[in-house]
Specification:
With about 350 residues, the chain is mostly beta strands. Helix content is about 15%, strand content about 35%. The structure holds 2-acetamido-2-deoxy-beta-D-glucopyranose (6 copies). One 2-acetamido-2-deoxy-beta-D-glucopyranose binds next to β10.
């Protein structure tokens, strides 16, 4: 009996000890929106704590910072043949975690020249530096996965979202929802998932979309031009005031509506690993943005020659989306509604 008590206390003490020692297995980083509408990671690096805004890249990438690294107190460790440039190691502040990361200062001739980015994309070359892999190698995270959410597309609000590297923040998941592993689109090596051409505007079928990707560098939902034209025709038929002018996104492209009250949900099905469909519903509040003049910008952009649907980060207001580095596939769930942006 007494021995049992001692045993219990010992076990308890051990549990307590192991928990004091246990490292957090999530690195949570804040996100802001840049002037060009990219999601950016504000961080500090090197012994001089140089401030820098890094793009979260999920395609062809490596950790790169185009700015003199020796001034920031980073340590030169060689050359990087993948990027083309000098290779450094430095301490980075990633949320509450301070950790070493490798990165390259790209040469003028490098295709990465001018870029400042952390790489979250596929690894196919041993010289690539990838933040997820480097945190995993150092034992800071236990799974090579990361999860992204935003609560606004209003750049002036400052911090509008987060990336959780390692494991998801469970309190961001809507009650009763669970994380769903999506299928990887087999003909595409990068992060992607198949869709079954079930794209709809309200009840209007648009019969479009075989391949779906998530985009962290744009808030726009990009779909085929015929699908955009069908939506515009529907706006006309319903007497909703709009302005539309085709151009490039950061220059003369214009798609505004006077009011979002009569706009419909946009929906599509993506395919889970168990072959069941997962319906993504994009509400008017999520695919529009209120302008200074009281009108609403519509965050839809037409693709000319494509079968692809590119879901910009505006949808991360309603969905919490994970990326699995090893399989280049997505994980998705509905977001809890506590943080939803209000109009
Ligand atoms: C940085 O690169 C060196 C050489 O490739 C490697 O030994 C080291 O583990 C890397 N450090 C981190 C933090 O990934
Ligand atoms: C998880 O999300 C909740 C709700 O946004 C937030 O209050 C909490 O700080 C987050 N936890 C971590 C570890 O980031
Ligand atoms: C796509 O999947 C949904 C859900 O199973 C189904 O209702 C719809 O008919 C499918 N669409 C096409 C075009 O196969
Ligand atoms: C749009 O989608 C939301 C969220 O799924 C739902 O609550 C709402 O009823 C839908 N609106 C319409 C008009 O179907
Ligand atoms: C964006 O946020 C700023 C600062 O809070 C606010 O003044 C502005 O009205 C917001 N813009 C929109 C379109 O909600
Ligand atoms: C938006 O999200 C960020 C990061 O997750 C958080 O710090 C902020 O408080 C949230 N804002 C609102 C209005 O929920």
């Amino acid at each position: 009996m007494r021995q049992n008590k001692i045993c219990q206390s010992l076990t308890f003490a051990l549990l307590l000890l192991s928990c004091i020692n246990c490292t957090p297995d999530t690195v949570s980083i804040s996100l802001k929106i840049s002037e060009l509408d990219y999601l950016i990671i504000p961080t500090k690096y090197g012994s001089s704590q140089c401030e820098v805004n890094l793009l979260p890249l999920i395609d062809y990438c490596s950790n790169v910072i185009t700015q003199p690294a020796n001034n920031c107190g980073a340590t030169l460790i060689g050359e990087n043949s993948f990027v083309g440039g000098k290779q450094y190691i430095a301490k980075f502040q990633l949320g509450k975690v301070e950790t070493n990361l490798n990165f390259t200062n790209p040469d003028v001739k490098s295709s990465f020249y001018r870029e400042k980015a952390l790489c979250f994309g596929e690894i196919f070359n041993p010289s690539q530096d990838n933040v997820v892999e480097e945190l995993y190698q150092q034992g800071i995270i236990k799974e090579q996965k990361f999860y992204v959410q935003v609560n606004s597309t209003n750049a002036t609000l400052g911090v509008i979202g987060s990336i959780e590297i390692g494991s998801p923040n469970l309190s961001l998941i809507k009650r009763g929802s669970k994380l769903v592993n999506l299928k990887h689109y087999s003909q595409n090596s990068a992060y992607s998932t198949p869709s079954n051409r079930s794209l709809k505007y309200g009840k209007l079928p648009l019969n479009y979309g075989d391949l779906v990707t998530f985009d962290l560098l744009s808030p726009y939902i990009k779909i085929g031009i015929f699908a955009v034209n069908s939506i515009i025709q529907q706006l006309q038929e319903e007497g909703i005031g709009y302005q539309y002018h085709y151009g490039t996104i950061n220059e003369d492209y214009l798609f505004n509506v006077d009011s979002i009250e009569k706009l419909q949900n946009i929906s599509l099905n993506v395919i889970a690993q168990d072959e069941t469909p997962f319906t993504i519903t994009i509400k008017p509040q999520d695919y529009t943005r209120k302008l200074q003049n009281g009108k609403y910008q519509v965050l839809l952009y037409p693709l000319m020659y494509n079968i692809q649907i590119n879901l910009g980060y505006s949808i991360l207001q309603s969905y919490y989306v994970g990326f699995d580095l090893a399989t280049q596939s997505y994980i998705i769930t509905e977001k809890s509604e506590i943080n939803v942006d209000q109009f």
